[in-house]
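Why should sequence recovery work at all? Because a backbone constrains its sequence more than one might expect. Tight turns favour small or flexible residues, buried strands favour hydrophobic ones, and helices have their own preferences. The token representation captures these environments compactly. In the example below, the structure is given first.
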């Protein structure tokens, strides 16, 4: 069976795309002409790059150190492994690399990047926490943090970096307030 491979052009594009935030489409082909499209979604985290790859109904992700010199090549290897069913055997992460971005950071950055959706951050002591992100008619984003007992709405700045910072700050305040109210 022929392996699916990215073109040289896709590999060059990935070298630049690993430094960006967004979703990018790449075609993988075999020598016999089979063609499959992959969507690579990059989120730039504080110390890491989070890459999620969707191919033919499957979704896999990896976290890479932002400082690694070969992240473009590593992303290409990961995408090809996803396409060929070899993700489990791929040794891509270096020691501790998966710890460079928390699940909450990845979730919040994804929420800001996509600008929509319902999320359930898993934070100690608050099991019913929900984050709902919706766009306004003017293109701004509104984030709603809620539990069964409380809610808060936040208008997020248009800049993704600033929106993430504002959302993180408000989430921390919401959690602190919720915990204090539960103690009282």
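From this structural description, the recovered sequence reads:
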């Amino acid at each position: 069976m022929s392996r699916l491979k990215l073109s040289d052009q896709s590999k060059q594009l990935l070298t630049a795309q690993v430094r960006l935030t967004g979703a990018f489409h790449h075609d993988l082909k075999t020598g016999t002409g089979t063609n499959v499209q992959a969507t690579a979604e990059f989120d730039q985290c504080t110390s890491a790059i989070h890459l999620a790859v969707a191919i033919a109904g499957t979704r896999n992700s990896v976290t890479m150190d932002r400082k690694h010199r070969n992240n473009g090549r590593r992303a290409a290897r990961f995408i090809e492994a996803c396409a060929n069913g070899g993700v489990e055997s791929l040794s891509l992460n270096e020691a501790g690399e998966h710890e460079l971005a928390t699940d909450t950071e990845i979730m919040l950055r994804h929420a800001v990047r996509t600008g929509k959706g319902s999320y359930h951050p898993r934070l100690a002591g608050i099991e019913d926490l929900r984050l709902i992100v919706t766009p306004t008619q003017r293109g701004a984003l509104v984030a709603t943090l809620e539990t069964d007992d409380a809610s808060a709405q936040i208008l997020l700045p248009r800049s993704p970096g600033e929106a993430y910072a504002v959302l993180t700050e408000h989430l921390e305040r919401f959690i602190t307030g919720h915990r204090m109210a539960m103690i009282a």
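A few observations help interpret the result. The CA atoms of residues 14 and 67 lie 16 Å apart.
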